[in-house]
Structures are given as C-alpha cells and as structure tokens.
Amino acid sequence: MAVSRTDLAFLVSQYRAVEILDALARKSLALRDLRVQTHASRRPLARTLRLLGAHGMVRRTHPGSWDRLRPVGRYELTRQGHELADQLSVLDVWTDLYEHYL
C-alpha cells in the first residue's frame, strides 16, 4: 500500500528521515552506525526513528521501549518502509511533493 502524498510530505520533512530510509533500505543498522551513515545527532535521530516506527515504517529488532536514552538492538525497515523507500526513488513523486506540499 502506497503512502498518501500528505503523509509522505510529512514524513520526508522530518529530521534526516530520507537519509534514514535510504540507509535502512540497504541493511539493518545499530543506532551508532545509523548516526554515522546519516550524519545525525543522537536525540533528533532517535526522535525521527520513533516517529517512523509509529507510522509503521521502521522496527527495532530488540524488544522494549523506544523511549530509552540508549536504545539497544538494530533498526530495520518494515515492508511498508521498503515500499516508502521505493516510492521515494521515483522522480515524479518528488516533483509532485515540491509542487503541492513542500
């Protein structure tokens, strides 16, 4: 199921969300490795991961709270997250986003 354009515009406007989706589309990563690949600060990165998780795009391989200061485990895209990453690889999607939402 494709994400609506409104939801898509909201998600891609979040701190490093596109970089996170791109990095996790290749493989699951620990928070430290994700920080390095996305050049992101820890707290804002964790906030965006929680948001993507709440929208069903990302899951953590270790059970427990997403609100821990030092989350453990690895992060990976869900099926819906992979579909979103694929959707973002289409130029027409970005053109539509810029023309109507961003």
* Order of helix and strand elements from N to C terminus: HHEHHEEHH
- The value of Rg in angstroms is 13 Å
Pairing-aware structural class of the strands and helices? mainly alpha
Q: Which range does the strand content fall in?
A: 5-15%
- The end-to-end distance, rounded to whole angstroms, is 22 Å
Low-confidence stretches: none
Quickly count the domains.
1
Report the mean per-residue pLDDT as an integer.
Answer: 86
Please tell me the CATH architecture by its name. Orthogonal Bundle
Question: What's the total helix number?
Answer: 6
CATH class: Mainly Alpha
How helix-rich are the residues, as a percent range? 55-70%
Reading side by side through the largest sheet, how are the strands ordered?
1-3-2
State the CATH superfamily name. Answer: Winged helix-like DNA-binding domain superfamily/Winged helix DNA-binding domain
CATH topology name, in short, is Arc Repressor Mutant, subunit A
β-strand number = 3
Overall shape: it is globular
Biggest β-sheet, characterized? 3 strands, antiparallel
What is this structure's SSE topology?
Elements: H1 5-12, H2 17-26, E1 29-30, H3 31-38, H4 42-54, E2 58-60, E3 74-77, H5 79-87, H6 91-100
Antiparallel strand pairs: 1-3, 2-3
Helix pairs in contact: 2-5
